[in-house]
Amino acid sequence: MPSFRAPKAQSEHAISQKVALGKGRHDHRDDGRIHSVGTARNYEQALKGVAEYQQEHKLGDLRGLSVEIAQQYLADRAATVSQKTLDLDRQAIQMHLGVRLDVVKSERETHLSTRSYTTAQVERIASAQSERNSLATRIAHCAGLRAHELLTIRPAEERPSSGHREWSAERFTGREGERYTVEGKGGLVREVLLSRELAQQLEATRLDEPREVTDREVHYTQHYDLAGGQAWSQSFTAASQRELSFSNGAHGLRHSYAQERMEELQLRGINYEEAKGIVAQEVGHFDKDTTEAYLR
Questions:
Q1: 281, part of any domain
Q2: CB 195 within 8 A of CB 177
Q3: What span, in angstroms and rounded, lies between the C-alpha atoms of 196 and 240?
Q4: Which of 59, 90, 106 delimits the end of a domain?
Q5: pLDDT over 50 (residue 268)
Q6: Angle between helices 119-127 and 252-267 (to 10 degrees)
Q7: Do both 142 and 20 map to the same domain?
Q8: What are phi and psi of 6, to 5 degrees?
Q9: By CB count within 10 A, which of 30, 137, 200, 286 is most buried?
């Protein structure tokens, strides 16, 4: 096994290679160097967090940091930190890698304000939607999907999970069904499990040829005639308002999934921390603190 330096030592070394104090930053704004002591300190702290994340998930060290891992780190952080902190992390990583990264929006405020739905409430909402949107709602609830992930679903045998991750064998413990994969934030491809009934309904919508769809200016290749993205999310909110006289948004289905799975796993004798780690992978996060946001 390779031996890596402590995260603090890694970040200090990375920053030392980029510092150019004594040169006016306004005259050297785009030279990829750090011209401020304060910026150097902030970036060092940010990269220390990245190194700790890599170490925890056995993803090497800062010298081998890839764009893929960097984007997933930011996606995981999005649930627990403010937009200001998230932007600082991104800027520090961009400086380290020398490439531009996709901007990731903080979900912290969303997570703090949303709440889960009961199974009965989900069924009431789904029953108030069109058949196409209704199926998407039931699938999102069953698998804990984001709105855009509905557009990316494919059978697991057609597209494997991301290989740079170490996936727990305990995922989906206590549930049976058919495995699919979806592409989440940061490009992470993960397995999800659908009940056999929902899988059968999904397969009935299989397209003869894949089609290109665009949601929030992002392009996806869709293999099923399944609702998803912003249009489905809006349908969900409207149906929730009609049926329940309130809406926590479609993202609330991920809260429901996480809370239901935590209860299921703990009833099977799995301790809280281990269960949280399993659920983190099932919903597409590897940071347990991120999962905690769904359990409020």
A1: yes
A2: yes
A3: 26
A4: 106
A5: yes
A6: 140
A7: no
A8: -60, 145
A9: 137
Q: If you average pLDDT over residues 204-219, what whole number do you get?
A: 94
Tell me whether residue 120 is in a domain: yes
Do residue 94 and residue 192 come from a single domain? no
Count of CB atoms within 10 A of residue 32's CB? 11
- Average pLDDT score over residue span 160-186: 92
- Token pair in block for residue 191: 């397995």
Q: Decide: helix, strand or coil at residue 164.
A: coil
| Phi/psi-derived region of residue 172, left when phi > 0, alpha when psi is between -120 and 50, beta in every other case | left
Domain range for residue 127?
A: 113-295
* Total structural domains within the chain: 2
The answer to which of 7-11, 164-168, 257-261 has the lowest mean pLDDT is 164-168
Task: Check residue 30 and give its pLDDT.
Answer: 52
Verify that 96 and 121 share a domain, yes or no.
Answer: no
pLDDT (mean) for 61-67: 93
pLDDT at 17 over 90: no
- Cα–Cα dist 269/263, whole Å: 10
Residue pLDDT, tens place only, 237-262: 999 999 999 999 999 999 999 999 99
Domain edge (last residue) among 54, 81, 106: 106
Instruction: Say how far apart CA 79 and CA 105 lie, in whole Å.
Output: 9
